[in-house]
Design goal:
heterodimer; A: mainly beta; 4-stranded antiparallel sheet; globular; B: mainly beta; 5-stranded antiparallel sheet; 55% strand
Chain lengths: 113, 110
């Protein structure tokens, strides 16, 4: 069974731009969660989607948004990029939610210049 | 301030030594998960502990969940270079959210 895939793997943007990251979950998984990982703050929860609905949201500004499609693929968007948005963005999928085994993708490394 | 405090943050030991990583909180969690992350990859789940006082063993790794479900520990016996990585604990609370600790970066030297 194919694992969680994330595209692109690396991205360089400049301040003020926007970016869209994509996550394809394991086939059959309906829950997709997004996390931001930085050396200073560690791994922080962004939001979780289940059946195209955002079920939970972490403590991030409204510049961070996401969506999930009917095939469970998910995208996250960051508008008006700031230097502090430089991070590894990870998505994880599971059948029903975070109480189950979360399968993480390799992440998208975003650098904001 | 992290809701889940992990200690130590860094650990460098020789092959064959034992070590313990701690994950502490003032909050109660429904369950606690331990992950290992290697460079360039996402975290991989090692174990989930659910019941207070629960002990789970995974080969040379022993995981314990505190009686009050606020803390957990990971003990590695006879560490090997292949154990090198970032170890993360994550607590699940109501609302289908995971809160991660800051991580423990372990290096096992041959």
């Amino acid at each position: 069974k194919a694992g969680v895939t994330q595209t692109p793997r690396y991205l360089i943007k400049t301040r003020g731009q926007q970016v869209t990251l994509s996550c394809s979950p394991i086939s059959g998984h309906r829950s997709v969660s997004w996390y931001q990982q930085t050396p200073g703050q560690g791994l922080q929860f962004l939001f979780e989607y289940f059946s195209e609905t955002q079920r939970n949201k972490g403590n991030f500004p409204g510049r961070f948004s996401g969506r999930q499609f009917s095939n469970s693929r998910s995208e996250m968007n960051v508008s008006t990029l700031e230097l502090g948005d430089s991070a590894l963005y990870l998505c994880a999928s599971s059948l029903w939610g975070v109480q189950e085994t979360q399968y993480f993708g390799p992440g998208t490394r975003l650098l904001v210049l | 301030t992290q809701l889940l405090e992990q200690s130590p943050q860094f650990l460098s030991i020789q092959e064959g030594e034992n070590l313990t990583v701690y994950c502490n909180s003032s909050s109660v969690f429904s369950s606690l998960q331990w992950y290992r992350q290697e460079p360039g990859e996402g975290p991989v789940l090692l174990v989930t502990v659910v019941t207070g006082g629960e002990v789970k063993k995974l080969k040379r790794l022993t995981f314990q969940f505190g009686d009050a479900r606020k803390d957990s520990s990971l003990h590695i016996t006879a560490a090997q270079p292949g154990d090198t990585g970032l170890y993360l604990c994550a607590g699940e609370r109501a609302g289908n959210m995971l809160t991660f600790g800051g991580g423990t970066r372990l290096m096992v030297k041959p």
